[in-house]
Records
---
Amino acid sequence: MVMFDGEELGRIEEKLKEWREKTLPKWLERMPERMEEFTTLSDIKVKDVYTPLDLKDWSYLEKLGLPGEYPFTRGIHATMYRAKLWTMRMFSGYGGPEETNRRLKFLIQHGETGLSLAFDEPTLVGIDPDDPLAEGHVGIEGVNIASLRDMEIVFDGINMGEVTTNMTINPPAPVLLSYYVAVAEKQGVPYHRIGGTTQNDPLKEFIAQKTYVFPPEAAVKIAMDVVEWSVKNLPKWNPISISGYHIREAGATAVQELAFTLADGIEYVRQLIARGLDVDQFAPRLSFFFDSHINFFEEIAKFRAARRMWAKIMREWFGAKKQRSMWLRFHTQTAGVSLVAQEPFNNIIRTTLEALAAVLGGTQSLHTNSFDEPFRVPSEFAAKIALRTQQIIAYESGVADVIDPLGGSYYVEWLTDEIEERAWKYIDRIESMGGMLEAVKKGYPQREIMDASYKFQRDLEEGRKFIVGVNIFRSDDIDEIRNVPLLEFDQEEIEERQKRRVKEVRANRNQERWKRSLEDLRRAAERGENLMPYVLEAGRSYATLGEIMGVLKEVYGVYVEPPEY
Amino acid sequence: MSSLQSTEAVGGAVRRFKVLVAKMGLDGHDRGAKVVARALRDAGFEVIYTGLRQTPEQVALAAVQEDVDVIGVSILNGAHIHLMKRLMTKLKDLGADDIPVVLGGTIPVPDLEPLYRLGIREIFLPGTSLAEIIEKVRKLAEEKRSREEAVTGVGGC
Amino acid sequence: MEAASIEALLERAEKGNLRALGRLLTLIEHPTPHAIQILERLAKRAGRAQVIGFTGIPGAGKSTLASRVIGALRRRGYRVAVVAIDPSSPFSGGSIMGDRLRMQEHASDPGVFIRSIPTRGVKGGLSTAALAMIEVFDAMGYDKIIVETVGVGQSEVDIINAAHTIIVVTMPGAGDDVQALKAGVMEIGDIYVVNKSDKAEANKTAAYLQFALEREDIGRRESGWKPRLVKTSAVLGMGIDSLVDVIEEHWNFLRESGWSGRKVEARRILMAKMMAESMLSAKVMEAHMESLGYLEEVARTGEGIFRAAEELARRAARKMLE
Ligand code: B12
Ligand SMILES: Nc1nc2c(ncn2[C@@H]2O[C@H](COP(=O)(O)OP(=O)(O)O)[C@@H](O)[C@H]2O)c(=O)[nH]1
Ligand SMILES: [Mg+2]
């Protein structure tokens, strides 16, 4: 069923022609347009006005349907935010487990509805705090977790059966998940109540996030172990969060973000099917993670296109039967890269717009960045404002009261179609390369992103794109920056504490059990078995992160990035 | 001038400025470093990119082996004081502290002072234009070349 | 004063000061009088090192393989220098050099010295500068000097006059029937490497190569050496020791047969020829700039353009003689 009947369309066409030929030129003469050409942030050219003519053969039922129904363009749930608001999940963590435990409790106390752990770089790449490479890094960019002991402290006084926790962790995902499960075991929480997410998305590590450890094939294998094990053992766990966020932040356009993320997802689905799993068994546990950038409508269109595309991929490519398998459930983070050092308080406004787009795009959970983003991990003060931003949108603005309120907007629908079409082209290209694993090995998405990020920088330089305070209304007021109260902590003291604790852990554990667990792990890795049960046992035996990753590195090797620029 | 003196004489080739763009420590934020490397290349520089996860000592040795005119470091992970201290010490040990060092990335304003005190010549905060970076890097390279010329009589252009 | 400081630099470099060596390499990159002076001094002492050329299409794994070979040579106690030639941007003349990145693991090894050099518009990239660097490394006592070429262009063949041992690197599936081995390359290699043998099809490529090498016309080098085939996987570190064994074997063969010295001579002759070319072309450039008016006029009418060329060459030659 198309939206307008032919007669009506004919009349609109006539009217529009008249407008273009008579009305508009007169106006333009007096009021010429601000720019020669208007484009979205991702360089999609946009017209002055959109009408039903832009949706000529557009079928409502095919393109949109109803909330909670295929193709889910309007939302994956029939009730959407009228029943349950999105989860307000603030990415947080710094210092040692003690500091982070305090921060989590602070956020919960202020109405946060889900937890999200940010790890420091040593943890992200799987080394212990006393590894020489970790020197000077411990606790700066997130919490340092070196063993089960640290995880126990993070969740001290937090009931793991009642919260869900996201962990932004990739190559060491099996280890951190093991620590999490082991603490839950100690708290007496049954497996079916352990909820949360491990990011565990290896392909985008090579593309964008760069906390890779193992070579691509091995990295994918290990990640799929986590998925398989979780699907069978932790029914509430999202074992993977297929992430466009990092891809976008590394410089991709909205279209690339969408296409590369879905292509990553396609690769994982194939890998899991190849393991003999049934699509409908694991697909409902796949989750996604997107960026919400500053070009308002483009982001909303991207989220809507993403849902429609994934539903189609799951149903038509992979023969999924369950509705849930077709859902694209996603977390969103506002665009860190859109936040700038110049006049930093303006960042609150940027984040508000981006958060609004995420909500209008139907996100399941949301992190809002703090205005101090360009300087350091957020202070309590800044994080609170960021959380309040979501709460104001949720409780005051009324935007959450109607489902997909922009559905039917000529512009938004046209843009949704446009982004979808462009994304399919990328996906076709990647398919022709043999899928994303092959494309990543060839450096294809890496180069595309680099080109896009360089182009954006040049556009800023040459005044085709704008950032207030940076290349328009330029501010060089360094005092305004100096006055931003930053999070303060004694990094050296934290590093010492973490080094001390990991040594204590090594000295005080049951050495026999520990040793055996690592030997078993090595053998399992060599045999190609699913690693999860072995990593879990090593975690329970207080094997440190660096020790477990060390065994795996010996078996699988390490990745060195090829030069791409 | 003898027939070989001018660098123009080398089949029309000029001696281009050479810059090392470096990432140190565990920092994986490479967007800025790569954008800057490209901008320098397009401005005619010869750029050597170290890749990720280098130790400061490796970076210093690469700079010495390549005899670069400027070392450009990109740090966004907050470990700048620690990493830059080590880099500057190693450069000194190698007798290469005449190579100007510049830094870009996530640097909180209170840290600017201590970093300049380590001998870092320029610090580029987020939002710096590429044009400004190119201009300042070129200036430092020129200065270094003319110092060398004064010593050995061999310069570039 | 100048001479004295160059003297000091040489002295420090000889004592193993890396900074001084790095500076020296810069000084000889362009054929200035200083460069000539330095090279004249050093060349006398050079001629001991084995120069190992890695050539083959871009992406075959030359840099990755070279890095592995460096590691193996180090374990055998050799000091290793690398001249890594990378392409320049044809637009700005600038470049981002990436070979080094693959060998960066050796950066902190004092027994390894890696120097990148862009092609700077020289086809194939084997420039006077690269040859001069080989001379310097040789004189400074490096035992093995690895030269990685960009792997494109016909002047790639120049490498046979620059290196003792030429390793042609190829990979499976780089085109049917070793299309990858472009014209000329089948005749120059001392060692053929099928890299990436972790991939399927490696055996096919190797078999084809082996078959080709058994042909009499391409299966023997002037020196009498019969080219060898080695399969490697640079990423997995497979076949590296066999490769280094063959590299050593070839070196022994060259030394015993007296060909090693002849190779050094060939390299120097090539360097002299290339230097002469660049001097001349510089003079052509000068003459060209001075005669622009005349040339433009000829170009307009289209008449006498070849005579003009001759005239240009004559003027350049006169300048050279001045
Ligand atoms: C993009 C981004 C990412 C992307 C990186 C993608 C990539 N491949 O580069 C992703 C999403 C993957 C990411 C991940 C993480 N990030 Co991040 N990220 C950012 C962000 C938002 C922008 C950085 C950026 O690329 N800007 C655009 C480029 C062009 O600008 P730039 O790098 O600043 O470069 C300019 C200048 O600084 C200068 N410059 C920079 N380098 C050089 C070099 C030379 C030679 C010269 C001359 C000049 C120069 O010139 C450039 C042009 O003006 C910043 C916050 C912010 N708004 O700045 C956080 C930020 C850097 N990230 C942060 C953190 C904590 C992380 C994580 C650890 C999060 C976690 N716990 O999981 C991970 C770690 C990843 C890793 N491998 O290290 C923190 C660091 C905190 C600190 N320093 O104390 C920041 C500050 C955010 C915050 N406040 O929490 N991040
Ligand atoms: N599978 C595989 N890949 C390799 C091997 N050696 C190199 N590569 C990859 O091939 C690409 C090109 O390698 P590089 O050394 O830069 O090639 P070069 O252009 O010939 O110097 C890189 O992505 C390497 O990681 C190998 O033995 N096996
Ligand atoms: Mg190479």
---
Amino acid sequence: MARSRQRTEELSGWGRFPVVRGVVHRDEDLSRACAGAALTRGLGRSYGDASLPAGETDIVACSVRADRILALDEARCVLRAEAGLSLAALEALLTPRGLACPVVPGTAQVTLGGMVAADVHGKNHHVAGTFGRHVRALRLALADGGEVEVTRETDAELFAATLGGLGLTGHILEVECALMRVPSAWMIVETEPVTDIAATLTGLAEASAGWPYTAAWTDGLARGSAAERGYVLRARWAERDEAPAMPPAAPRSWRVPPIPLTEALVRAHHGRHFARAARRRGPRLVSPAQVLHPLDAFAGWNRLYGRGGLVQHQGLLPGPDPGPAVARLLATLAAHGGRSWLTVSKDFGAAGEGLLSFPAPGVSVALDLPGRPTTPALVDALDALVAEAGGRIYLAKDALTRADVLRRMEADRLPRFNAVRDRVDPERRLRSALSVRLLGDAPAGGRAATAAQRRRRETPR
Amino acid sequence: MSTRRIALLGATAGLGRALARRFAARGDDLVVLGRDPTSLARTAEDLSLRAAGRPVGMARCDLLEAESFAPALERAEELMGGLDLVVVTAGVFATQEELERDAEATEHLLMVDLVRTIRFCEEAKRRLLHRGGGTLCVFSSVAGEQARRSSVLYGAAKAGLTRYLEGLDLRHAGEGLHVVTVKPGFARTSMTEGLSPPPFAAEADEIAEAVMTGLDRGRRVIYAPSIWRWVLAVVRRLPRAVMRRVEF
Ligand SMILES: Cc1cc2nc3c(=O)[nH]c(=O)nc-3n(C[C@H](O)[C@H](O)[C@H](O)COP(=O)(O)OP(=O)(O)OC[C@H]3O[C@@H](n4cnc5c(N)ncnc54)[C@H](O)[C@@H]3O)c2cc1C
Ligand SMILES: NC(=O)c1ccc[n+]([C@@H]2O[C@H](COP(=O)([O-])OP(=O)(O)OC[C@H]3O[C@@H](n4cnc5c(N)ncnc54)[C@H](OP(=O)(O)O)[C@@H]3O)[C@@H](O)[C@H]2O)c1
């Protein structure tokens, strides 16, 4: 009966750009929600338009009510759950059992389905690979309505296309994945201050040689001699005898008032934050959330970017010596007058099997750019540089990259991905705003956007 | 708080699921009752894993099949070796317009939300009294508090249910039957999918939290979220001439 009611609502990714209207089907029964839907989304933590419908007439299923844990084999370390289970709920379940998810992104507010569809990486990519490496089986609802269990054995190509496939190969209903045993419920973390980007990358490489969790933060707003200052973070699970027997308190979060910040305020905050990080010496015992999901302590922080939203540009600069390309990327940013409110770098290990997954050997640089009328031109310039370096961009973050640039970056990989879609969804019934923008899918019917509306949608305010 | 033995009708979805997870986390013994065996099995396994591996039982029970009530409750008593609390969150909803278009749907709603819910409660009551008492916690709605143009039929069903539960309390309180009427306001669940959320719309888990607190405090009427107690105190005083004009 509920399905007879259709209400369009405002939808966006975490970056709150672009914002579109769409019809969402939410249901405890994800198969039912997916019926007739062109796409499934999770908690909407991808930044751009990956989780958005191709038009007002397309239906998006939302998985978050399909969040039952179906099986947990503690001896074999295997979990099976419905795709809408949040990582936060999963971590709450695993911690008391001495288990952990082997790969987690920077926020716990994601669903298992979203982790598969973006083939997420974590601070331990150099040792653990992407989440996809740990996935054993997927239950998919295909474009034709049929449901299949997909593994590396039953259909390796479809499996690989679904890892990082952004929901375009099928609706992920259930996920079976491996877990890892951890020695305690605590982590040991150290931070090493660095003064410029070259030192950041060397520090990152050194840290990754000895530590399982690493990343580097750079203050993109500092000026003068402090410019490019930052720190390298390295962490590992605390051994049982290093940690208190008590688990850390459950992660808490404060709702940030949705008041847009100015660059000056962010700069002032960073001044204190990075200075404090520079003074810190030696190992600290902390809760895993502080290392793995630091920004989750501030719920709704994306609203601080105001009406124009937040555009994240995450590019991979490949190869054993990405330093010069990273320096060029930051120089391009500066030359365009662009400023990243937060810059996070991470060195990657070997690429996984996902046909469109982001990570590959090299360094990933994520720039948090406030949405401005000039942002599209800036992203064009950054993309050109990444393409030039033989790199790629992270589609789960992207909102503005152009189709021809993507084809250049992904000339080798796109044909294989498209071939899978040709086989399982030749009519392209599954599509998203991203697949229309980047993969040549037809936009959804209904009211066509006027040129003015399109411009407004394509340019952040 | 000692472990309670709880049978839940409606834990497969929405408010019932959120509440069941809170009971599971607290370590209560649970048996889930419902109409769809597949969904029941998945729900029972999920609750069991969230309850650190304690088994959670299940039994088939469909509000459209009155014959299923006694065996389901019997099975719950068997599985848990007794019964302290029966929770009913099962129910259906449709808007006034949807119901006016479809007489079958109207009859179905009155059947499920009023006739059969009462009949299930009668069976549960009988069993609890037979054991010397226990708690019967049933989800009615704020919609049953005051007639409104926008929910004549659903409101009537919930008003009838609320009055029935009040009567049960009057009749059996002395015998150890503790009757709890839960009156949720609008919650974002699959039941209300596609409706525009009104002011004070709540998430399922907020409702579950309010119900847990109310049960712990021994309340007989639980407004969830509690703001509805005050909203209704005002709305109930509005004269009919005013209610005739207001849109909600
Ligand atoms: C603060 C923050 C930090 C982050 N850090 C990292 C990080 O360190 N590493 C990293 O890799 N990512 C990171 N991300 C990105 C995030 O992990 C991914 O975008 C992830 O996909 C979000 O999951 P979600 O459930 O919110 O999915 P959504 O954003 O809702 O959807 C993402 C994509 O997955 C598809 N999808 C979701 N569920 C399903 C399903 N059931 N079936 C089919 N397709 C589906 C959607 O269609 C969409 O294409 C971060 C995001 C934020 C906000
Ligand atoms: N959501 C609100 O805004 C709201 C507000 C006030 C009051 N309420 C009341 O709160 C209760 C729970 O609502 P909800 O939002 O959680 O609804 P919901 O998400 O739709 O869940 C309804 C539950 O009832 C079960 N059910 C439906 N028909 C049944 C039948 N014939 N036999 C057995 N079980 C049946 C469903 O089982 P299946 O999983 O098998 O479908 C499901 O578990 C209802 O009584 C509702 O009237 C809700």
